[in-house]
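Student:
Attend to each token:
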Amino acid sequence: MEPRIADKPSFRVAGKSRRISMKDGENFRVIPQFWRETVEDGAHSRLVALAATGRVCPNRLLGVCSDFAADMSEFTYMIAAEAEAGADTSGLDEKGVPALTWAAFEAVGPPPEAIKKVMETIWSQWFPSSGYGPADGPSLEVYPGGDPMKADYRFEVWTPIKKKA
């Protein structure tokens, strides 16, 4: 699995966020429910419209994973879209994403199973053999339109990276 390596400028995201526990794989149960709630409460449609103006991730919804606890027991998950300056983000949480170098891995199939598979490969195979290590910054799930429940749905997982010393 060879990722696309890309430098991206800083950008802002806006969306809904929630603190998520990783204990006993709870994140893989809670996050899909969080996405359903976002569709049901209308925030999803608002984020789709916001994403249309993006320059770094145009027309993409994002799952932003950040602020991990020191023991990796929990993190903040944001269902978001890139928010250009002047966009109406009232009632949404906002977060800055710093300029970083990213390894963008393709995932195929419905999340969260496809995410689990990609993350296992990144950490167990790619990082040990790539010449790169993880960098400080959020990880991103980058979702184009389409039906994420289809077996052939394609999206990306972006991991911030730096060259190993």
In short: The chain has a mean pLDDT of 95.
